[in-house]
Amino acid sequence: MARKRHLEDLDDTIDLDGVLRKDEQEIRRDNVLKNRRKRKLRRKRLKRFSIVILIVVIIGYMVSDFSNIRVMKVNNNVIYTQQEILKKANLSYDSKMIMHPGMWIEHKLKEDEFIDDVSVSKNYLTGAIYIDVTEAKVIGHYEEDGKSYVLLANGKSVEMKDNQLALISSPYIKDLNKTQRADLANMLAQIDAENLALISEIRYYKTSYDDNMLELVMSDGHIVRSSYDGLALLKNYRKILEGLNDKLRCINIQESSNSVFTSNCD
């Protein structure tokens, strides 16, 4: 009997310990959950505080002169002046840097027929905007129906405006029709700017064996006569001059034999 009571007391003791352990586990779990909620609440408060600080900083930056455009520089422009480029991009020194995304500036400028490509870079610390433009290659200019046009390397003709005086320095094209101008643009597009600048005038020319040739008046006094395909040899114009007779001013290009010879101009 005594042994039985002892076993019952032992069982009661074991059950009590289990209850205590269970209570301790629940307390620990509650503490863990409370700590998690506290950390989550702190993170939310910190996030809200950070957002408020960010908004304050942005507003402060926007209303300060520090956000203004303070430096603007355009590179590689010839057809347009820097002021004309900036006007096309709607940029001014009282504008805010953040209000003029680089991609939007590039898009605006590329809409112009004389601009092939644009690259914009910014420095927000100095308030600087740098614009690098790649202008369309100009082959020459001509007159038709009382208007002046510019012939581009892509074969397109664009009416010339009064303020585009820089284009007058390009070769003057005379007596060529639309198809001939397109062929001319296709060939001279391969010629570098240095050699292209040596051409003063391009005009129609014909011989007994070819009624669709060109005569180019060069700035050095020479006259070059060639078919359209022969114009490719102008890439080496200065080297061509080295082996020719200085007293004969006409340079004849024969693309069939890839040769050049001089003659009297008649």
From TrEMBL:
GO annotation terms (biological process): cell division
Gene Ontology CC: one annotated term: plasma membrane
Membrane-spanning segments: 46-63
Pfam families tied to this protein: POTRA_1
Keywords: Cell cycle, Cell division, Cell membrane, Membrane, Transmembrane, Transmembrane helix
Residue ranges constituting the POTRA domain according to the UniProt record: 68-135
Record's protein name: Cell division septal protein FtsQ
Organism encoding this protein: Breznakia blatticola
Lineage, uppermost ranks: Bacteria, Bacillati, Bacillota, Erysipelotrichia, Erysipelotrichales
